[in-house]
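Dear Dr. L.,

I hope this message finds you well. Following up on our conversation about the binding site, I have prepared a predicted three-dimensional model of the protein together with pyridoxal-5'-phosphate. For your records, I am including the exact sequence and ligand specification that went into the calculation, followed by the structure tokens. Please feel free to forward this to your student if that is useful.
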Amino acid sequence: MTDTRTNYRDLRLYTGDTGPCAIDLSDNTNLWGTPPAVEAALASAAGRGMRGYPEPYSESLKAAIAEYTGVQPTRVVTGAGSDDILDCAFRALAEPGDRVACIAPTFVMAPTFATTNGLVPVPVPLTSRYDADVGALLAANARIIYLCSPNNPTSTPLSRNAIETIVERSPGYVIVDEAYVDFASDSVIDLLDHAPRLVIARTFSKAFGLAGLRVGYALASSAAATEMEKARGPYKVGAVGALAARVAIVEDIAWVRARAAEAIAARESLRDELLGRGIVTPPSAANFVFAPIAGAVRIAANMKTLGVAVRAFAGLPRIDALLDASGGEALRITVGPPDVMARALAVFDEVRA
Ligand SMILES: *Cc1c(COP(=O)(O)O)cnc(C)c1O
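The resulting structure of the complex is given below.
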């Protein structure tokens, strides 16, 4: 085949974890469900007809996000999930051939979208304390630096100091992916006013329980936001998704926050349970736990046959003693309600027995 784009040939389609599973702890979605006010709004939207186009750039949703975040609506970009946000940011903020420095390990789609947009991803391993290697990221000669905090899959937040220094010193754009910010104690949203090249990416797929509707957003300078919208194109967020996201923020933010608090309690209890089994996990600021453990791939496969899906990683950079001891293997386990976690732990124990 010579008639397709050459830099796509080595990419593979995203598979996630194949097939449904009784208990799915593999994708960090909200295991408590969808906000009740959203369910009600979706039910009444069903009778309304969908013949017309949605707002081209989700103006009503942007207004709600602006109110929620305290960032002006001209600085908000929406997208079909934050995947779409990363995709259009890479397209709008760099030229083909430019480098994108990404912390490693991190969200697999970041280097993938860099590649699909003709950019060159440069992985920069985290330090042994799971922080961004500021010197190495700045030295990577990158047009864009991609950070993720709290980071997927390691669950750890980057230090405020590292992010601030990178934002201050980087000559190019810095994307901070805050997909899990609702479970963390800190956001870098306050840096936006003094950092015209900072882009913060967020999503309704995790804490907000709306992964099926594909809605995400970015906060940036007005100039960058406009360029990202040009790159993104109109009508990317459907009317139903935009409605659901707006209702979640405006009518049910208390539900979202209460479930996030439960997720935080659940992750601490899961870390304790694992520690009781001799498995040390790095501190989590997300709705999942990262457990470096030898044989993680086999454990996950065996758990799957017993109805519990968790995500396994292999070949991770051995940045600390835990990942060194596990040979670069780890499990990433989404947390949910107590009954779900009890079942997952029972299956974990069964598989390891
Ligand atoms: C899940 C996830 C996303 C993607 O979310 P969508 O909004 O569903 O596209 C982005 N970044 C990170 C770090 C994630 O874990």
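In brief: The longest helix spans residues 239-276.

With kind regards,
A. P.
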